[in-house]
Write a sequence for this structure.
């Protein structure tokens, strides 16, 4: 799994965001704080992120994803 290329894809999709990407085997862990998530539901945020990384799931590069997606003034729960 190429963490740097995943970070780059997410940074391009969510400019000016804070992104942390890590992995444990084929489990991808994402922590994203982005202005685009302001006033957006948790489900919609996840859909936005999956739209960026779904091709990696389809190829089997990523098997599972753990997502924390927050708006600019939100605290992670």
């Amino acid at each position: 799994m190429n963490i740097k290329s995943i970070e780059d894809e997410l940074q391009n999709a969510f400019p000016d965001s804070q992104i942390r990407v890590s992995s444990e085997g084929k489990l991808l862990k994402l922590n994203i704080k982005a202005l685009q998530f302001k006033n957006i539901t948790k489900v919609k945020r996840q859909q936005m992120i999956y739209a960026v990384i779904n091709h990696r799931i389809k190829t089997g590069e990523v098997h599972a994803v753990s997502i924390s997606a927050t708006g600019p003034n939100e605290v992670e729960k």
Q: What stands out?
A: The chain has a mean pLDDT of 93.
